[in-house]
Amino acid sequence: MRIGIVCPYSFDVPGGVQNHVRDLAEHLIGLGHEVSVLAPADDDTVLPRYAQSAGRAVPVPYNGSVARVNFGFLSAARVRRWIHDGNFEVLHVHEPGTPSLSLLACWAASGPIVATFHTANPRSRAMLAGAPIVASAMEKINARIAVSEYARRTLVEHMGGDAVVIPNGVDVGFFAGQQPRPEWSGETIAFVGRYGEPRKGLSVLLEALPAIVEARPNTRLLVAGRGDEDEALRSVPEHLRKRIEFLGMVDDVDKARLFRSVDVYCAPNTGGESFGIILVEAMSAGAPVLASELDAFSLVLEGGEAGVMFPTGDAAALAREAIGLLGDPGRRDALRASAAASVRRYDWSVVAADILSVYEMVTESTARVTANGGPR
Amino acid sequence: MRLVLTEYSVALVLLAVLLVLFGLYLSWTATRLDRLHVRLDAARVALDAQLLRRSTAALELARSGLLDPATALILAAGAREAQSADPDEREAAESALTRDVRASFEDPTQAQQVRAAHGGPELLDELGRSLRRVQLARRFHNESVRAVRQLRSHRLVRAFRLAGRAPDKPNFEIDDDPPVALAR
């Protein structure tokens, strides 16, 4: 099948949507499909072979923060040319509800269109103002996919209409197959993410650390990700600082090895998560998960069946649960077993097959994707 | 006198411009509505194809000889009913097929038995896939119905009869929950 995928965010910035698009494209190519990805890129960005640049994304204020967006007639013309040259059987756009390449693609294309919605966020004024503008582009979408029940609810509330839920994919075998590292094993807790961002919740974990170390003196906390170490350590008592190791940015292999090594992976996030793919990665690698009770996390952890949850932001509860987990190998093994069963449905083999079913369904009528003559 | 004439003609031009703009808006709305109707027709074709695929998968499994005769008969009858139902009984018949499949595989050992037999995994996987595809196709179809209805209920669309004589298409409401043993 000839498939055109539109990614609204640049590949050289890390992010869930970009990762999803890259993995999906590579998986579909592996299955023998022809895939072209259109994404924003700077002139010096090295793109994967299957990707095409839509030009540089420009930062503009939107919805209370600064979004990097491709807009204007030049971008629209580029999108139209890509659609025209690609002669796709199906067009798959990501996050078309925001001002983005995906919205431009909906605007410029006719024919079978599939859209995936990633974000879950509260109703915003920007969205209300934009609703009628977005509506006519959205009407062209034949099939809507939400990456989680939570993202689906957001979509239903903001724009009306329904979507099917197909989760983000994870290469379960990759995470399950990595070797643990001895220096990261033995009463260790892992935290992964840009820890400078308050919503990632490292401060909650650090607040819980004194109680955890008091009960289990050998506990070490391994922090992977980008951020300012001194800033993060400011609130930590002097004698506890040597119990914390900063690993800096880690690649996918080291991230998997970290998950394979530790006794507990902790996700103390305080909000802003629509899916929690990192939980699925940790579960795939066999790390017992201790996470805050966010809706998105609760869905992945099956309400506590496949991982332990604590009230969001509650450091005392986090400490209690962590101490319990660190001292009970049997419980950790039970969590590993039930997590291994529940991550199967997130494996790319399952997810890609489901997405392909959607493609086949919308291409049931023989029409191809064509570029409109002009804006309408 | 000349001044009055000028004002008069300005008003006339203004009126003409407004009329043209209004006409453009109406034609744009008609285009949107037409596009939505086309999308709904395509969704219905896809849904019918998936329903047929599902009943065919159930029928093949029933005829495979891998099931006990009672289960096979229930599945075969359900599939036949679904395939030959009149349009107004379609939803009931498809729901009944879903319940037949669910009843057949409620006991998880049933699926294990079939899976262990030669050719069993293929038949079960095809049935499982088709159950999922019916769920997907039905969601997309009903979402298209909603979009059409929303635009058709627009005041201007009604006043100018932009929907023409296209009939109002209903949702397709069936029970399509697969049995646990065949769910993804």
TrEMBL record, chain A:
Domain Glycosyltransferase subfamily 4-like N-terminal as annotated: residue spans: 14-172
Signal peptide bounds: none
Pfam families xref list: Glyco_trans_1_4, Glyco_transf_4
Record key words, sorted: Glycosyltransferase, Transferase
Record Gene3D superfamilies: Glycogen Phosphorylase B
Keyword Glycosyltransferase found: yes
GO biological processes: carbohydrate derivative biosynthetic process
SUPFAM superfamilies registered for this protein in UniProt: UDP-Glycosyltransferase/glycogen phosphorylase (SSF53756)
Single annotated GO MF: glycosyltransferase activity
CDD domains in UniProt: GT4_PimA-like (cd03801)
Superkingdom of the organism of origin: Bacteria
Coiled coil: none
InterPro entries: Glyco_trans_4-like_N, Glycosyltransferase_grp1
Protein name: Glycosyltransferase family 4 protein
TrEMBL record, chain B:
Alphabetical UniProt keywords: Membrane, Transmembrane, Transmembrane helix
Species of the source: Actinospica durhamensis
Source taxonomy: Bacteria, Bacillati, Actinomycetota, Actinomycetes, Catenulisporales
The protein's name: LemA family protein
Origin superkingdom: Bacteria
Entry's transmembrane regions: 6-26
